[in-house]
Design goal:
Distance between the termini: 37 Å
CATH topology of the domain at 2-140: Rossmann fold
Strand order of the largest sheet: 3-2-1-4-5-6
Radius of gyration: 19 Å
CATH architecture of the domain at 2-140: 3-Layer(aba) Sandwich
């Protein structure tokens, strides 16, 4: 199996590292900056004897080497700066993702596309539109990241291992995302029984602001370690045909009462991409929040379309 990662910045290079060092697939890095992808690929290849894997790692500016990729991960685009929302990246990143998608589909028409570039749900919408692929084969990585942040913050609050926390975050990857405390547990115990409502609400808000918090600290970049792990898990589920249930931004066509919009929901992932969209039972308040989040995604898509 071969995975192509487009964009050799912090997110893309770390995705390549996680995939290769996890012995999941061979990796090809692509970047328009001359030498960047090739240099990082060579560095990763030289680490292979020390890490202990035999995966092939290559890189360059040419898309031709992406031919026959089973999965293509798109991380290309500009990152946020302090004070910027993900939507501020729309004009630049939407055009980049459209161009990248066109080029990868030309050489790897059967590849499953995973989009990471922000604003995530909108760029994923664009990638599917440009590629013409079935909805099962184009998805966005966000739910895995948002859920990981929610779990991490709950673990920090309780002083427990985040691996003992199960949680769920639905909706768009942005300020309108929908963390679901009612569905969160620690070792099987509902979080609502362990954390008082005011503190739980603060954790929910911190989850929504999780990316902005990191941008504010870094000043000149955005998160890349956690996003790369989210990509790794999705790629592994597909390449290894694991049938894992993971939160993914996917095109809904009637599920949750929503149609023609990409939002994060739990899906089952396997060799052919999205095998099943899982509909979680939501109460009236949770469903309303999910629909508001989808509404924001639609508005941003309309903003993009107006730019054309």
């Amino acid at each position: 199996m071969k995975v192509t990662v487009v964009g050799a910045g912090n997110v893309g290079a770390t995705c390549a590292q996680r995939i290769a060092e996890g012995d999941i697939a061979d990796v090809h890095l692509v970047d328009v900056i001359e030498g960047l992808a090739a240099g990082k690929a060579l560095d990763l290849a030289q680490a292979a004897p020390l890490v202990g894997h035999s995966r092939a790692i290559s890189g360059g500016a040419d898309y031709q080497a992406a031919a026959h990729s089973h999965v293509v991960v798109i991380t290309a685009g500009i990152t946020r700066k302090p004070g910027m929302s993900r939507d501020h990246l729309l004009a630049t990143n939407a055009r980049i993702v459209a161009d990248v998608t066109e080029q990868v589909v030309a050489v790897a028409p059967d590849g499953i596309i995973i989009v990471v570039s922000n604003p995530l749900d909108v760029t994923t919408h664009i990638a599917r539109q440009v590629s013409g692929c079935q909805r099962e084969r184009v998805m966005g990585m966000a739910g895995a990241l948002d859920t990981a942040r929610f779990r991490a913050f709950i673990g920090m609050e309780l002083g427990c291992s985040p691996t003992d926390v199960t949680a769920m975050v639905l909706g768009g990857h942005g300020d309108s995302m929908v963390p679901l405390p009612r569905h969160a547990t620690v070792g099987g115990v509902p979080v609502t029984e362990l954390i008082e409502p005011a503190r739980l609400e603060a954790i929910i808000q911190r989850t929504r602001d999780g990316g902005a918090e990191i941008v504010g600290l870094l000043k000149t970049g955005s998160a890349f370690y956690a996003p790369a792990v989210g990509v790794r898990d999705m790629v592994a589920a597909i390449v290894r045909d694991e049938h894992r249930v993971l939160p993914v931004s996917v095109l809904l066509q009637g599920e949750y009462g929503l149609s023609d919009v990409f939002v994060g929901v739990p899906v089952r992932l396997g060799r052919e991409g999205v095998e099943e969209i899982i509909e979680v039972e939501l109460n009236e308040e949770e469903m309303a929040a999910l629909h508001r989040s989808a509404g924001h995604v639609r508005e941003t898509v309309q903003t993009w379309e107006a730019m054309q």
